[in-house]
Specification:
CATH architecture of chain B: Orthogonal Bundle
Number of helices of chain A: 13
Strand order of the largest sheet of chain A: 1-4
Radius of gyration of chain B: 20 Å
CATH class of chain A: Mainly Alpha
Shape of chain B: globular
Structural class of chain B: mainly alpha
Oligomer: heterodimer
CATH architecture of chain A: Orthogonal Bundle
Distance between the termini of chain A: 14 Å
Helix content of chain A: over 70%
Distance between the termini of chain B: 18 Å
Strand order of the largest sheet of chain B: 1-4
Number of strands of chain B: 4
Largest sheet of chain B: 2 strands, antiparallel
CATH topology of chain B: ABC transporter involved in vitamin B12 uptake, BtuC
CATH class of chain B: Mainly Alpha
Radius of gyration of chain A: 20 Å
Number of domains of chain A: 1
Order of helices and strands of chain B: HHHHHEHEEHHHHEHHH
Largest sheet of chain A: 2 strands, antiparallel
Number of helices of chain B: 13
């Protein structure tokens, strides 16, 4: 669980605390190895490919959520969080699918309109949080509902198939023998990583999230970074819509709830994997892939699908509790 | 001039919006302002109000409860199964239902107080586990119906006390109880204290953990009462149906908090916000809109209303 920076001594980690540090990751890997032994097909290239393909939309929205959390601080209720990203992804997918399939609009125009919608949502969220001072949790939850409502009008709550070659390429295409969606997502992760950790703007954004007051004293404007974090988050929603369209061969109603839960889980689980218990880009990506691996692992093991949520939920709570415990042992 | 306008908006902004919506809806459909329909609005808001009361308490402690829907479902499930499978009377079934809700609250409290997981993630975990338990128990989410439930239990939803629907009476009693505890008692002061300055409250000798446990259990038991009414109304338990109250309950609490002079979650504010949501839902229904359009409109109205109350709160300062 995320803790304020002051509660985290950086140096002098003893052997014990190092073991507890790694425990969340060890539990997850142990679980996967267990599945590997019990489901013979699990440890194969095909299954790994499937896991990565499944996790791609979640990974992309996790990038957006991580950036908002980094800019706004990691207190879920009062700090930065953006629950509207999955709704943005779903409405963009809906707009593209509806226009391309049902009205013969050229793909590029449909994409441009979807991008416009995403930017609008991001700007509204950013303004509401930074100008009106609304709680991000509440703002983005309400936006989530509003956007899902509008999506229903756009798609008439129907499933819409998309057979555009570009979307098919994202689903079936390969780059260097690895599926195109995965390669493109990896590239995206690297771009975002560079942006957040290697540019001045990105480092300033992290500084603002780490300690708003300190950053303000040194002349940074927290509102500026938070605003753009929401816009970037909406942009990741827009990007994720392509992978949603590819994964589902079109847009389907009701995708948003699952995507939201998985996004939140993966991102905060990622924080449990990081040694300092803070949300990081790689942690979120790892979280998304591991959660997808577990879901598919349970399926290949033949675990009743009704039980999956229970096992996943308990496991995640164990990991979060361990992370909280290790923070206490250290301090 | 500008200054007067500002002060009017600052003081009455949200009220003006409510009145504007009422005028608009009654202009579109005269039925809206009829006595029957006004009672419909109150009756239709009862369950949401009950759930929102518990949420107000949790938000006042500085936390959030994403598992109120699960507590509501458990309340309904335990009561229905107690009557159907074990032949309990209405009274026993209601108590068992409320205890079912308490289990959810205890799990949350154990995670938050015992394991130090943050309320958001702990209750999200409870939500996952609770949803899964319901799927397992009902073999994938089929409803459990109990057509021949005792009339007294059924009356929780369809009966009346001196002409006032029972569910409205139950909601009113709970509102009063919550109001007294949260706004007029030392317990309420302490709850607000630990929500505003937890470390200060701890230093001052407040038993923070005890209060957190009490609040999470109380909120879940309250939501379970909502579950009893919901199950009595349709004479069945529908798995995972509580989720639909979650967002509205959170929204109501925060709208209510924005109406408060110091921005604190409070019971009168929550009641006003729930009734506002009820007016919108009922009015849009009476307009006879397409289902999808209605969803879109109510979402947009919700976002605008939130922005407005917060802007109004900002203007006051």
């Amino acid at each position: 669980m995320p803790m304020p920076a002051s509660a985290r001594p950086e140096s002098g980690a003893s052997g014990l605390s190092r073991i507890i540090d790694a425990a969340p990751l060890v539990i997850f890997l142990g679980m996967l190895i267990y599945i590997g032994f019990n489901a013979p097909n699990f440890m194969s290239f095909g299954t790994m490919q499937l896991v990565l393909n499944q996790s791609v939309p979640v990974v992309v929205v996790c990038l957006g959520l991580s950036i908002v959390v980094m800019a706004g601080g990691d207190d879920v209720v009062s700090g930065g969080i953006d629950l509207s990203i999955p709704a943005t992804a779903v409405i963009c997918a809906g707009i593209i699918a509806q226009l391309v399939t049902n009205t013969d609009t050229p793909l590029l125009l449909a994409i441009a309109l979807a991008l416009g919608a995403a930017m609008f949502i991001g700007i509204v969220a950013g303004l509401m949080v930074t100008r009106l001072g609304m709680t991000p949790l509440l703002t983005t939850l309400a936006l989530f509902v509003a956007v899902v409502g509008v999506t229903k009008v756009v798609t008439s709550s129907r499933r819409i198939n998309v057979d555009d070659p570009f979307i098919i390429f994202l689903r079936d295409g390969e780059i260097l023998g690895i599926s195109a969606g995965v390669v493109i997502t990896l590239a995206l992760v690297l771009v975002f990583y560079h942006f957040i950790h290697r540019t001045k703007w990105g480092l300033n954004l992290q500084a603002v999230g780490g300690s708003c007051e300190a950053a303000e004293i040194s002349g940074l404007k927290p509102g500026h970074f938070l605003f753009w974090a929401f816009v970037i988050a909406a942009f990741t929603g827009f990007l994720a819509s392509f992978f949603l369209l590819a994964r589902g061969s079109g847009s389907s109603p009701g995708t948003e709830n699952n995507l939201m839960l998985e996004m939140v889980l993966a991102t905060f689980l990622g924080a449990a994997f990081s040694p300092r218990r803070v949300v990081t880009l790689w942690g979120a990506v790892l979280g998304a892939v591991l959660v997808a691996a577990l879901s598919i692992g349970f399926k290949t093991m033949g675990v009743n699908v009704f039980w999956t949520g229970l096992i996943k939920g308990s496991l995640i709570l164990v990991v979060l509790a361990l992370a909280a415990l290790s923070s206490r042992v250290k301090s | 001039m500008n200054q007067t306008l500002k002060s009017i908006i600052a003081r009455f902004g949200f009220l003006i919006i409510i009145v504007a919506f009422v005028i608009f809806f009654s202009a579109v459909n005269p039925v809206f302002l009829g006595g029957d329909n006004l009672m419909n609005i109150v009756e239709g808001s009862a369950i949401l109000l009950i759930v929102a009361l518990g949420m107000t308490l949790i938000v006042a402690t500085g936390g959030i409860d994403l598992s109120v829907g699960i507590a509501l479902d458990f309340g309904a499930a335990f009561a229905i199964v107690a009557m159907k499978e074990y032949g309990f009377g209405w009274y026993g079934a209601a108590l068992i239902g409320i205890s079912g809700g308490a289990i959810v609250g205890l799990l949350n409290a154990a995670l938050i107080v015992g394991l130090k997981v943050s309320p958001f993630l702990a209750t999200l975990g409870t939500f996952f586990i609770g949803s899964s338990v319901q799927r397992i128990f009902t073999n994938g989410g089929g409803p459990i119906s109990h057509r021949r439930m005792p009339q007294e239990f059924r009356d929780l939803a369809v009966g009346d006390v001196f002409g006032i629907p029972t569910e409205v009476v139950i909601a009113a009693v709970l509102v009063l109880a919550y109001f007294i505890v949260m706004e007029r008692s030392i317990i309420g002061r302490r709850v607000h204290a630990l929500g505003m300055q937890r470390s200060a409250a701890r230093v001052a000798g407040l038993k923070v953990n005890k209060y957190l446990i009490l609040c999470f259990v109380a909120a879940s038991m309250t939501a379970a009462v909502g579950g009893l009414i919901a199950s009595a109304n349709i004479r069945m338990f529908t798995p995972l149906s509580g989720f639909s109250y979650l967002l509205d309950a959170i929204a109501a609490v925060f709208i209510g908090a924005a109406l408060h002079p110091r921005g604190r979650p409070n019971i009168p504010g929550t009641v006003i916000a729930v009734l506002f949501l009820g007016v919108i839902a009922n009015g849009l229904n009476l307009m006879g809109l397409n289902f999808n359009t209605k969803d879109a409109l109510s979402g947009i109205i919700l976002v605008s209303a939130l922005a407005l109350v917060v802007a109004q709160q900002k203007l006051r300062h």
